[in-house]
Each structure stands twice: as C-alpha cells, then as structure tokens.
Design brief:
mainly beta
Length: 207
C-alpha cells in the first residue's frame, strides 16, 4: 500500500514492504524481491488468478546475519536503502549479492522450501582475490545476474570490477572478467583494460 511501509506477507495491498529495491522475474511469472536494511529478506510475489500473493522465502525480518539455512533460518545483511540484488538462474535457483557480508548466496528451491548457501566469498573479509568458494574475496558486491548456462556475474562495486562465478562440481570458481581492482575510470577495452567507477546494477542480454 503506497505510503505505508512495514513488513507483512499477504495478498495484493495487504502485503507490506520497506524500501524494496532488488527485483527479478522467473519464467513462470513469479517476482522475487530483495528487501534491504533491517528486513534483509528475500520475498516472492506469485500470481494467483488476478491476485498477487507475497511470501517471505529466505531470511527473517529484523534479524541480520550471515547464516546459511532453510527459509527463515537463513540470514542476510544488506545496506539500509542500499542494494539487495537478486537474480533468477537455471533450475529456478536464485542468486543474491549479500553486500554487507561480502558474499554471494544461492537460494535453491527444495519442494516447498528454499535453502540458502554461501557459494563465494568469506563473511567479513574484504578483498579482490579470485579463487574457489571461500577463497574468493569481494568488496561490497551489489549487482548480480545469471545466465542459462549456470554462470553468475557480479558487479563488485568498491573493487570497480565485474566478476564471474563458474560452477565446478560442488564448488564455485570466481574470476575477474573486466576491470582492475582499485582502479577507476571509464575506458572501454578487453578484460582488464576496461575501467569502471563503482558499478552497481547488472543485467544480461539474450545472447
């Protein structure tokens, strides 16, 4: 309901949000919303006939943290009024740039549940290292996108780079595909010859 912030699941105007700003759409027409700040949750808005039903699928309002887990047992930490980026990937998996935790999270549908796992980065550890799983480092990742091949792309805002996550068995390998950590600019170019200045939102085209 316009002008009435809050936190409530429900149908149509009965639902309440507080500064939602991450949005993704799946092939079935479901919307997924990242809600930052004190809420630090991921919400699903599902079309049911002419109505839209909002449910919380991961995280618990007013409880921030970094825990992996199922449904409300998971914890996230987003800036208040900052980014809470979410993307839909292959198999209906969701990917989240958990900006304050310096990690990338995966939310997997398992029956009626949603299971959150950390796939890259280490909570509370800032850096720019490429590497596998928790060996990788980020500096306020705030944008995320996923392609049909299962790759995940991240705008690593303070590092001024674009990163790619590739699945390798149960692990995820992080590489820097554009820009150089710590160097700002606007140059076009190939790989590390490109320069960015605080990249945030990230989208993929159809190719």
């Amino acid at each position: 309901l316009a002008g009435v912030p809050g936190y409530a699941d429900g149908t149509n105007s009965a639902a309440r949000f507080s500064a939602p700003n991450g949005l993704a759409l799946d092939s079935a027409g479901n919307l997924y919303v990242g809600e930052p700040g004190n809420e630090s949750t991921i919400r699903k808005i599902a079309p049911v006939g002419a109505d839209w039903v909002t449910t919380t699928i991961a995280g618990l309002p007013h409880f921030t943290g970094s825990d992996d887990g199922t449904n409300s047992a998971a914890r996230f930490s987003f800036w208040y009024f900052g980014q809470a980026a979410v993307a839909v990937g292959s198999g209906g998996n969701l990917y989240v740039a958990d900006v304050d935790n310096q990690t990338i999270r995966k939310i997997t549908p398992v029956g009626t549940n949603w299971v959150t796992t950390t796939i890259a980065g280490l909570v509370g550890n800032v850096g720019s290292d490429d590497g596998t799983h928790s060996a990788a480092r980020f500096n306020e990742p705030s944008g995320v996108a996923a392609d049909s091949a299962g790759n995940v792309y991240v705008s690593d805002t303070v590092n001024n780079t674009i990163r790619k996550l590739t699945s390798a068995g149960t692990n995820w390998v992080v590489t820097t595909i554009a820009g150089v950590a710590g160097q700002t600019g606007s140059d076009d170019g190939i790989n590390s010859a490109a320069r960015f200045n605080g990249p945030t939102l990230l989208k993929l085209d159809s190719h």
